[in-house]
Structures are given as structure tokens and as C-alpha cells.
Amino acid sequence: MMRFLKHRAAPNADWNQSLALGSLEYELMEILWERGECSVRDVVFKLSRTLAYTTVMTTLDRLFKKGLLDRHKSDRAFVYSPSFSRQEWERKRAGNLVAGFLSGPNTSRELLLSCLLDAVGEHDATLLDELEKKIRSRRKGLSRPGQP
Amino acid sequence: MILPYFLRLLCLCFASFFVLNASAGLLVCIASKSAFRFADSRTPSAAAGFLLVLRVLPLIIASFFVLGLCVPSYFSFEPALTAEHVSILCLVLGLLGALTWFLSIARIAHSLFASVRHNRLCQLASQEMRLSGRSSALLVVENETPLLALSGLLRPRLLVSRGVLRVLSAEELDAALSHEDAHRSSRDNAKRLLLLLAPDIFPFVRTHHALERGWSKFAEWAADDQAAAGDSRRALSLAAALVRVARLGSSPRLPYLSTSLLAGDRDLSARVDRLLQASPAAQATHARPPHPRPLFRAAGFLFVGGLTLLLFTPPALSFVHELLEHLLR
Fold first, then answer.
1. What is the pLDDT of residues B92-149, one digit of tens each?
2. What range does the domain containing A92 cover?
3. CA of B166, closest CA in chain A: separation in Å?
């Protein structure tokens, strides 16, 4: 379901697109969230697979243009740092996703609300089962002779 | 700013109302934790009454001061038909007071309108049904929603959905309807109107929400106790009715001036546990409506009467007038 939601909400807004990450972008962001500040060379060394320096440089540049990274020059090379913490990024993504659904047509809104209600409903059903069990056991207790 | 006689009085009334309501409201907010502790130690109906009084106390104090002291002292001591300066502070406070009243009246008008509209729609889409042993008729709405509510202010009607009638047994339905009858006899919808009238400390800031929720919880508990009437089997039937109705889904959105069987779904578990655990004797005690002893009641009337007489003496009014002059300048 989450994959479906991601798929539906992503094309709605530019900001949403900038927050959506490809697999390499996500990998680079992971390194930067972990280390804080990195040059392109540092990121290349940290990667689990071998990638060309220019590929990493282009991807970091794209993340910078999306507004997800900040950068400054140090010894003629750029040093990149994340603009948001991972938590902030996740919160923004979730917020944009919901906002995208709510600003969309009625069907999108209803779909989102029904997903949320389903989740809440499952919890309620468990609670109601428990309460029903208590009522049954109390009823049994009352039907025993000598009970008020 | 120069204002004529009556406009100045109006500004003073609103300004003093705002200051007193805000100060008393702040004190109530500070005391609310202790108030909840005290309410927890009382029977639900007494606790509901206590929290309601606490919620409307700022309104009562401020209105009493304005109508009982501010207006008489102004007419007694202010030279007639003069135009005088009014400070910016007094003007701002007056505007805030007027806004506070405007919001309260708008809230009431909106809720009354919503309630009348809802009742009319329900009447159009429902059939009247009379159950044996019940004086009031039910309006049966043809849908499956978990609707069992008492809606309206002057002539509250019992609304029941076909779905609720289908899932409840005769005992459970009787217990559930008794719960709503208890709300009717304690005039809970009228009390809701009072809550709407009572302003918050500042306009647009909900400061007494916790008190209102507390009142609502205890009002439900009190209605549960009255419906159970100290009978364990009846309490069990009501608990079963609560769970069965909850199984039908989320409660439909009702106007503020109505009480429903499943009011505040989040309290459901606590309500069922109470109904299952409380002993009949304890519930019977809770079910009794609070009747203050005649001696206490007489003493209360004497105290309030004496205080009112004392406040209406010329020295008291003169003192109030001096205070108001300070506020004006």
C-alpha cells in the first residue's frame, strides 16, 4: 500500500519530486546523514560499490539543486552536507504525501482516509474483542448461583 | 479618544468583563489539576456538576461584576451626558471583550442552527416508533450507522438507526435508551449550550478544553450509572450495548448540542470496565442525583444575598467607580 501511495502522490508537486530519491541518491544521502560533511572523494571511498568519480559528483550536484544538500568550497573542491536531518526529510515527505492526497480529487482523499480508517479499525476490532471477552466472562460470573 | 456617555459605558463593560474573565479563567486553569483530582474522588454526577461550575465560574464572576457593579456604579457616580477621554488600553480591552462575546454568540448561533438542521433532516429521513414502557417516541433513521443519540435543546429527540435496533437485544436497547434518558433528565444538551456561552481566556485560544472534556466524561459516566440503576445485569447489558454499537463503526458526526451513546469513543474501554467492575451498591450511590442538604442550600442563598446587598451599598459602588476611572484613563 505504501508503494502505491508513493507512486500516486509523487507526480503532484515539484517539492515532492525533489524529496523523492532514487536508489543511488538515497545511498549518497545515507552517507552524508551518517558523516555530516563529505567531499566527492570521501563519498566515493565510502560507497559499498565502485562508481566513477564523475557519476558521484553529478548525483551530488543534482541533490544540491533539489535543495537536499548544502555545499561550500574547500581547497578548490566542494564539500557537501545535508540540508535536513533524516527525520526532517521523512516528516516532510510524509506531510507532502498527505497534502498531495488532500489537495487532489475526492477519490484520492477518500482513498487516503479509508487507508487510515482501515488501520484504526483493525486496532479497534482487537479492543472490542477484548471488551467482549470481559463481558462474556462477567456474564458467566453473574449466571452462577449466589451472584448479585 | 473622546467617547460619549453610553459608548464609554459599553467600552468599560466589555473591558472589565474581559479583564475579570481572563483573570478568573487563568486561576481556573491553574487550579484545574487539583480540580480533576477532587472530581475523581466524587461521584460522577457530582464531579460533572463541579467541573461545569468551574468552567462557567469566570463567566459568572465577570457578568456579576459588570451587571451588578459596573453598570450601577457608572449610573450613580458618572456625571450624566458628558464626553470624556478613554485610554487606548481601555479601548483595546473593550474590543477584546466585545470580540469574546461575539465569538460566544457566534458559536451558539452556529450550534443551534446545526442542531435544528440535523433534527429536521433526521425527521425527514426517519420513522417514529413507540416502544412499550417508554413515554417518549424514537425516531428510527433508516441506515446502519452506530447512531443512538439525544439531539436538540428544547425538545430533545431520541435518534436510533435501524442498524442499532437490529444488533441490540431488548435488554441492551432498554439500557441504552435509559442512558439517553439520563442525559435528558440532567439536561446535558442545555449544559452544552452553557459551555458554548462561557468564553475562553482569550478569543480564538481554547484554554478550557480539558475541563470540558472532563465534564463530558463524567456526564457520560453519570448517565451510565443512572441507566444501570445499581443493577449488575443492567450494567452488563449497557456494557454489551456499548460494544455492539461500537462494532457498527465510527460514530456519525453529530451537532454539538447532542449526546450520543458512544460519545468520545476513546473512553469506551474505561466505561465498559466501570460498568463491569462497579458493585451494584456503589452504582446505586452514584445513580442518586445530587441533592444538596436544605441547610447548606439555605446558607448558600443567605451568603450570596448578603454579599449582593453589601456590594450594592454606596461605598462599594463608589469604590468600583474609582477602579473604573483608573481603567478609563
1. 999 999 999 999 999 999 999 999 888 888 888 888 888 877 777 888 988 888 889 9
2. 87-140
3. 18
pLDDT tens string A57-98: 999 999 998 888 999 988 888 999 998 888 888 888 888 777
- Cell numbers given for A58: 553529478
Contact check, Cβ <8 Å, B250/A117: yes
Interface of A with B in 99-128 (CB under 8 A): 117, 121, 124, 127-128
Report ipTM (2 d.p.).
Answer: 0.71
Element (H or E) spanning B259, and its range?
strand B258-260
Q: Are residues A60 and A49 in the same domain?
A: yes
**What long-range pairs does B248-252 form, CB within 8 A, spacing at least 24?**
B248/B144, B248/B145, B248/B146, B248/B161, B248/B163, B248/B164, B248/B167, B249/A121, B249/B145, B249/B146, B250/A117, B250/B146, B251/B145, B251/B146, B251/B147, B252/B145, B252/B146, B252/B147
How many domains does chain B divide into? 1
- Let me know if residue A146 belongs to a domain: no
**Whole-model pTM over 0.80:** no
